[in-house]
Amino acid sequence: MFSLTKTSSRQKEIIEIVLGNGWDYMRGILTGGKSDKPQLPPPEVFRKILVQLGPFYVKFGQLLSTRPDLLPPKYIEALTALQAQVPPVAWGLIEQTLREQLESPIETIFSTIDPQPVAAGSIAQIHKATLTTGEEVAIKVQRPNIDRIVNQDVILIKGIADIIALTDFGSEYDVVNLADDFTKAVLAELDFRQEANFTDKLRQNLTNSPWFDSQQLVIPKIYWQFTTEKVLLMEWLDGKPILSADIPSTPKTRQEVSTLLFRVFFQQIFIDGFFHADPHPGNIFYLEDNKIGLIDCGMIGRLDPKTQQLLTEMLLAIVDIDAQRCAQLTLELSDTNAINTNIARLENDYQKMLRKYYNLSLSQLNFSEVFYEILEVARSNKIRLPSNMGLFAKSLANLEGVARKFNPNINLLEEIKPLITELFRRQFIGDTPYQTLFRTVLDLKSISLRSPRQIDAILDRLSSETFQWQLQIREIEGLRRSVDDSANRLSFSIVVGSLIMGAAIISTGATTGQLILLSNVLFTVATLLGLWLIISILRSGRLK
């Protein structure tokens, strides 16, 4: 364990900042005192402390703002606007970094470079330049020695996490792993090649989309031949942040832009599963050619198909005011052992939350508010959700916030209606009907084989515990055989029903002779199996 009490100039600086802002809990940690349950300072004070601590802690706070599953909404709001109060680096130092990182002399690459940065952040600053080929570009250059500062602060953060881990709070929230995840995320941002890869992948995913005019969306081109660990060269986009841009105020224009934004992001989240996780107003540009540009693709969220499906089902459960289903889906999404969860309390919390959504249609829901409340319910029940849930909720909140400020009359349901149809098709049919049908048959086979065995195990256990408790249940074997028969018939019925549904799905979209033949075969097989099932029930004499 790293000793935080060991004297160093950086630790003294941190202690002075913390003491100066009156954060008593962290003062106790840093001075080796008692570490009880953490008490955060007020949101604005917390943000001020992070800014004063420097670039690493600013970036740390920005990452914390993507975790509404860990922090209350007021803290998320305060940290969302977190920006480092850092002066730009002198051009001479930036030029030195460029010469060290690029293989060719900068005079042979650029015809002009503006020495005044257009933006300066905690990790890097951006300059506008023109290549010798005439293309205008943005150069993102890492601040000198920032990697040394970050590595030093990583050690401090991990040391603090080790101490907090000794408390109940620390073990409950697995603070050591959280600190490890956050520090890895910050360190990863020091390699600009990762952001370049993310940018390229987003642009590829959003090219030729059937849900919007991809010509109206611009994601900067990456100049890989001039991109290194500390230098990122991108296409220059002429425009302004969307909320401050001079956009025609006609309802039609506003509607077209908001529709484009929602469809672009809902495709990323629910179809691609790879999404820009920081769509705040400063990263969405309205360009001079009336297109939309997305910049700063360094923070990316990922959702696997299973999680996408669970989130869709969660939305339907909310619309149905189904607290029990919401609780089940939360546990399926979580990293928490359900054995330690009070299911009744979780369902009750959802019941209280859902009351406000009675008689509301899907179009009236504020999606980001709903998912923030889901995270709040999970947090209050000590259920840990994966970090991608926080990124998802934060991205949705940013997107809705931008869209509603830009177009207050927006109807979210109308914007995403075409994607909803595709979403359900993908989740229930899949990209290929054959693959989905085959997977369904395998799942049903697993159910038909597993269910009777599980019932056998339960009854065996019940039998043994009955003797142990000196209770008597007569004809337990007969009961077991009866349950086995019922389970087998139920599984068999599910298979027959699935075959009929599969045949119906295929016949609906059948355009070739092979698909029509497959549909007819499935109907025939389902009919024969159904007749066999009816005959077996009649022969058993247990129709009633």
Description:
Residues 1-7 and 465-476 have low confidence and may be disordered. The protein has 544 residues and is an alpha+beta fold. β2 and β3 form a beta hairpin. It has helices at 9-20, 24-30, 43-53, 55-64, 73-80, 91-101, 106-109, 146-164, 168-172, 175-189, 192-205, 251-272, 305-319, 323-333, 343-354, 367-380, 387-406, 412-428, 433-469, 476-508, 513-540, and strands at 110-113, 119-120, 124-131, 136-142, 217-218, 231-235, 239-241, 274-276, 284-287, 292-294, 300-302.
Taken as a percent bin, the fraction of beta residues is: 5-15%
Anisotropy-based shape: globular
Helicity range of the residues?
55-70%
* Secondary structure tally, helices: 21
Radius of gyration: 29 Å
How many beta-strand runs? 11
Query: Could you say which structural class the secondary elements and strand pairing correspond to?
Result: alpha+beta
In round numbers, the mean pLDDT is: 77
Intertermini distance? 70 Å
Sheet with most strands: 5 strands, antiparallel
Poorly predicted ranges: 1-7, 465-476
